[in-house]
Design goal:
Layout lengths: L3 E8 L2 E8 L4 H22 L7 H9 L12 E2 L3 H16 L9 H6 L27 E3 L5 E3 L9 H17 L4 E5 L2 E5 L11 E5 L10 E5 L4 E6 L4 E3 L5 E3 L2 E2 L4 E2 L4 E8 L2 H12 L2 H12 L2 E6 L4 E3 L1 H4 L2 E4 L5 E2 L1
Parallel strand pairs: 17-19
Antiparallel strand pairs: 1-2, 2-6, 3-5, 4-5, 6-7, 7-10, 8-9, 9-18, 10-15, 11-12, 13-14, 15-16, 16-17
Helix pairs in contact: 1-5, 5-6
């Protein structure tokens, strides 16, 4: 197998790692790593809800209290390219998932006592309007000009995937075809693939145990130019003001934590941002609906339910190289 060069740090609250599987000058790898870190910093400044000075937080404060008003009276702004692209992606994701993924959960997160929701950003979908959520856009825009944000937004549901998308492009321009893997806290994207004699080309990736065990529940082969993302209840859990145990995967239809019967969902696909979107959307289908929803979309998906059973779609089984127990099943 080719020589591996590693660079590691922390960005967006998670471990960030670049693995280059080629004999590349270390100075070139350093430059590529710096570019990757710059991308994550740019995404953090634009999209973070954990920063009081992020572009999105400042914008949410302007929009708070105006949810549901006509676009003509909403605050108009010219967003950075990063934020404009992320908001556009969030709106497309809302439509593609039939409303399962919806960034307009700021008020719900604040009501539930989530960390990192600056005061003054409240103002999300009113309870009475949740049934019409899919039809309502997040943003209104005329071409590439000024944009109207129609409701406060939380972009944490696609932040790392979106950053990985941009960072892969930036690193590819500097590493000139050398295969590499970017890992942002368990969400990963590859560019090219290392060659290991006697084995199919690709990267061996472990699917994390949502109980926090060090051993993965399964390993999969991630091909060249592919991504994989996981949503789970391992992190993002806290006690709500009323004492309930809650988590960060909010069902936009109810404003409450969703995914009944599930502990974790993993999705693989060509784009890291969309892989992250689909992990959230499938998680919110719950244990009873996830298999049908994933098969209908043709997604490579793995999930672990509250009985600790690992299930996967046929597309996922084709990528799976090892399973920790015999409790897994096809879906």
């Amino acid at each position: 197998m080719a020589e591996l060069q590693l660079r590691e740090g922390r960005k967006l609250g998670s471990r960030l790692r670049l693995t280059v599987a080629a004999a590349v000058d270390s100075g070139v790898v350093d430059v590529a790593w710096a570019a990757v870190c710059d991308v994550f910093d740019e995404v953090d400044r634009g999209m973070s809800r954990f920063r009081a000075d992020s572009e999105l937080t400042l914008l949410n404060r302007r929009v708070a209290g105006r949810a549901g008003v006509a676009a003509i009276t909403s605050p108009v702004f010219v967003p950075s390219r990063v934020l404009a692209a992320a908001l556009g992606l969030a709106d497309r994701a809302r439509r593609a998932t039939g409303g399962r993924f919806d960034a307009r959960i700021v008020a719900d997160l604040e009501r539930l006592g989530a960390a990192g929701v600056p005061q003054g950003t409240r103002g999300s979908l009113p309870q009475a309007g949740r049934g019409l959520a899919v039809a309502r856009p997040l943003v209104a825009r005329d071409g590439r000009g000024p944009m109207c944000l129609l409701s406060p937004a939380d972009l944490g549901g696609l932040g790392k995937g979106f950053a990985l998308r941009l960072a892969r492009r930036r690193a590819e321009a500097m590493l000139a075809g050398s295969p590499f893997l970017l890992d942002a806290g368990g969400d990963l994207v590859s560019s090219g693939a290392p060659e290991d004699p006697g084995r199919p080309a690709g990267w061996s990736i472990g699917i994390e145990d949502p109980d926090g065990a060090s051993d993965p529940v399964a390993t999969v082969r991630l091909a060249a130019d592919q991504a994989i993302a996981t949503s789970s209840v391992l992190i993002g859990r806290w006690a709500a003001p009323d004492g309930r145990a809650v988590h960060h995967l909010i069902d936009p239809a109810t404003g409450e934590p969703g995914g009944h019967g599930l502990r974790a969902v993993t999705v693989s696909g060509p784009d890291p941002a969309w892989a992250e979107v689909w992990t959230k959307a499938l998680f919110l289908e719950g244990a009873r609906g996830i298999a049908m929803a994933a098969r209908r979309r043709g997604l490579a998906a793995w999930w672990i339910d509250t009985a600790w059973e690992l299930s996967m779609t046929p597309a996922a089984r084709m990528q799976t190289t090892w399973v920790r127990s015999e409790a897994s099943s096809a879906a």
